[in-house]
UniProtKB/TrEMBL annotation:
Belongs to the OmpW/AlkL family. It holds the Pfam family OmpW. The lineage of its organism: Bacteria, Pseudomonadati, Pseudomonadota, Alphaproteobacteria, Maricaulales. GO terms for cellular component: outer membrane. It comes from the Bacteria. This is OmpW family protein. The keyword Signal applies. Keywords: Signal. InterPro entries: OMP/PagP_B-barrel, OMPW. It comes from Marinicauda algicola.
C-alpha cells in the first residue's frame, strides 16, 4: 500500500536525522560494540512495494493505458554484521524470498500476468551511534542484487524477470535485552528497475517496471 510505503520511508528518514542530531550529544557514550565483534540477526520482514509501469509493448507496439500492481508479502530475513571499528560495521542482508503476484491494471485489468519469488542480497556499510548504555541507532548504505526465482506463467507465458542491481539504504535501532541478546528494528529501501519479458498469446511482450520496495524488519540478534 502506497501510504504504508510512504510511512516506512518517513521512518527511515527520521532515524537518519536522529543519528545526525544525536552525534554531538552522544560523543561521550560508550559504544555497544568492539572492533572484531560479529552480530547475527533473524527477523520477521514485511515487504511493502510501490510500483510504476514505465513501458510495455506487445509485438513491438506500445500498449496504451497499461498498468500493474504488485502485492505486499511477509517473510523471514537475516543479517550478519562485522564491526571493523566500534561504530562502523560491514553488513550482509538476505532472507527467504518474498512472493510477487503481478496483476494487470488499466487496459490489462483482470489479468494475472505472472508470479515470481524474489529477494535482495545486500552488502552495506553501517554507522552505529549509542544513545543509551543499552541502545544504539544506526544507518547504512550499500548495494544490493535483486534475485528473481521460480517464475510462474500467468497470462504472460514464458514469464521472465531479469535480476537487477540496486542501491540500498537502511536505518534502525538495536536494544540490548540481556547479555549478548539484542532486539532489532530496521527499515530498508531498495529501489530498482525490473525488466520483464514473455508472450501474451502469440505476441512477444516486454515491459519495464520501476519498483520501490521498503522492507520493515523486527527481530532478535546475538553478539559474538
Amino acid at each position: 500500500m502506497k501510504h504504508l510505503v510512504a510511512t516506512s520511508k518517513c521512518c527511515l528518514t527520521t532515524t537518519v536525522l536522529l543519528i545526525c542530531s544525536a552525534t554531538a550529544a552522544s560523543a561521550q557514550s560508550e559504544p555497544l560494540y568492539s572492533k572484531g565483534d560479529w552480530v547475527v540477526g533473524v527477523n520477521a520482514a514485511r515487504v511493502l512495494t510501490e510500483e510504476k509501469l514505465d513501458s510495455v509493448s506487445a509485438a513491438g507496439a506500445p500498449v496504451p493505458g497499461a498498468a500493474l500492481s504488485i502485492n505486499d508479502d511477509t517473510t523471514l530475513s537475516f543479517d550478519v554484521s562485522y564491526f571493523v571499528s566500534p561504530r562502523f560495521a560491514l553488513n550482509f542482508f538476505g532472507g527467504v524470498p518474498a512472493s510477487a503476484d503481478l496483476q494487470g491494471d488499466g487496459t490489462l485489468a483482470g489479468l494475472e500476468l505472472g508470479v515470481t519469488d524474489y529477494g535482495p542480497a545486500i552488502l552495506s556499510l553501517q554507522y552505529h551511534l549509542p544513545v543509551t548504555e543499552r541502545a544504539d541507532v544506526y544507518a547504512g548504505a550499500g548495494v544490493g542484487r535483486l534475485l528473481f526465482l521460480n517464475e510462474r506463467d500467468g497470462a504472460v507465458t514464458n514469464f521472465d524477470v531479469k535480476d537487477a542491481w540496486a542501491p540500498a539504504f537502511q536505518a534502525g535501532l538495536r536494544y540490548r535485552v540481556s547479555g549478548n541478546w539484542l532486539a532489532n528494528f530496521d527499515v530498508r529501501y531498495v529501489p530498482f528497475d525490473a525488466e520483464i519479458s514473455g508472450a501474451l498469446g502469440p505476441a512477444p511482450v516486454e515491459a519495464q517496471v520501476e519498483v520501490d520496495p521498503v522492507i520493515v524488519n523486527v527481530g532478535v540478534a546475538y553478539q559474538f
